[in-house]
Amino acid sequence: MRAVCWMGKQSIEVHTVPDPAILNPSDAIIRITRTAICGSDLHLYDGYIPTMESGDILGHEFMGVVEEVGSGVKKLKRGDRVVVPFTIACGNCFFCKSHLYSACDNSNPNAHIAEAAYGYSGSALYGYSHMMGGYAGGQAQFARVPFADVGPIKIENDLPDEKILFLSDIYPTGYMAAENANIQPGDTVAVWGAGPVGLFAAASAYMLGAGKVISIDRFPERLKLAEACGAFALDYSEPDLNVIEALKDLTGGNGPDSCIDAVGMEAHGETTGVYDKVKQALMMETDRPTALREVIQAVRKGGTVSIPGVYGGVLDKVNFGAAFGKGIIMKMGQTHMQRYLRPLLDRVEQGQIDPSFLITHRVGIEEVPAAYKTFRDKAEQCVKVVIDPWRLAA
Q1: Are 130 and 51 in contact (CB under 8 A)?
Q2: Cα–Cα distance between 71 and 88 in angstroms, integer?
Q3: Residues 281-310: pLDDT tens digits?
Q4: 341 Cβ partners below 8 Å, 6+ apart?
Q5: pLDDT, tens only, 200-218
Q6: What distance in Å separates the CA atoms of residue 170 and residue 158, rounded to the nearest whole number?
Q7: CATH top class, domain 2-169+335-388
Q8: Phi, psi (degrees; rounded to nearest 5) at 70
Q9: Do the beta carbons of residue 277 and residue 288 sit within 8 Å?
Q10: Cα Rg of the chain (Å, integer)
Q11: How far is CA 312 from CA 42, 162, 309, 377, in A?
């Protein structure tokens, strides 16, 4: 099969690799019909996530049709159409039974690596380093799906792939970010980043009762999509604009009730952003927490900070004194995907949201290496890239 392979920092190639096979009775093989590039894939592309190896197959947003199942799979059969969540969970450990699926104790065969870095390992992820399990990803024509009775959700409607593909990650991730923001009816919610997760967080904040959502970004096309979600757009690159002061002005001086950092470890910024870029380039800092610093500074006293943006290491100059002094609540982490698949699919089927609204680029698998660069550079007004793995040439 053809697959998108990580070959090194900023080096992505498409190769012919062996088809996946059933390794355990709980496995399924999926023939992938649509997949996508996630913003967090760019952390791999730019070399910020350790324990990648040359030849690793990328991708954790994918859906398709069941091709084969292991002898222990009871809920799926050949021919079923499924969306696969990016977190791999066993369904039987303490954390899975507590619906904390992204903290699964049993799905990561390389847990010892993550334990050395973090104390404990989270669940395994598709296509996201050997520290997170070393599983082949879904930017390919086929994928092996472990614990197939626990992860994939069966699709029994005729909605096109593009309307349901994002159940695999960014729609539930944006929704959990809004849920973690503890939104009360009429609240004001500020969202840093109008990329895919930030856009879904903005749309989800309204679903959960927000009275006003403020989206912060610097790219006009992304802010336009945020406005289409009903958000007030704040362009932080405007001359003389101070985000913290602007948010105070928009909230009667109190600050937003909830702030969501949908940017994560590769943030940009006018002053501290340059400082972080230099330190990260010199390997003196693992992450660029520019957005996180602003989020903590901006949120009102007693408010909530939600962090769906990915961070990988130790943060520098984060004002934890402000977090303590204002008594804020902070919630974060990988999405507990299996908790959200059914209720969010219901919202799509009921027409409450069409998740395909942010797709800007559709490519065949051979075009994916170039698409990574386009997406990373925000060129061609790129917001979201969807891949047809069977379209071999444009």
Answers
A1: yes
A2: 19
A3: 766 666 788 899 999 999 999 999 999 988
A4: 83, 85, 153, 167, 172
A5: 999 999 999 999 999 999 9
A6: 21
A7: alpha beta
A8: -75, 170
A9: yes
A10: 20
A11: 13, 30, 10, 21
Distance CA 179, CA 181 (A): 5
> Is residue 46 scored above 70 in pLDDT?
yes
State the Cα angle at 42 between 37 and 46, rounded to 5°.
145
Tell which residue, 157, 179, 135, has the closest CA to residue 83.
157
Which residues sit opposite 261 in a β-bridge? 192
Question: Residue type for 286, please?
Answer: T
User: Residue 123 is encoded by which pair of tokens?
Assistant: 């669940």
Angstrom CA distances, 384 to 137, 204, 210, 355, stand at 18, 18, 25, 11
pLDDT for position 283:
67
Short-list 28, 22, 102, 31, CA closest to 62: 31
Q: What is the mean pLDDT of residues 154-176?
A: 97
Taking only the tens place, the pLDDT of each residue in 92-104 is 999 999 999 999 9
Over the stretch 336-348, which tens digit does the pLDDT of each residue have? 999 999 999 999 9
Rounded CA separation 122/135 (Å): 14
pTM confidence score: 0.94
CATH architecture of 174-332: 3-Layer(aba) Sandwich (3.40)
In this structure, are residues 34 and 165 in contact, taking their beta carbons and an 8 Å threshold? yes
**Annotated domain spans of the chain:** 2-169+335-388, 174-332
293 burial class (0-12, 13-18, 19+ CB within 10 angstroms)?
A: buried
Q: According to DSSP H, which parts of 235-319 are helical?
A: 243-250, 272-281, 290-298
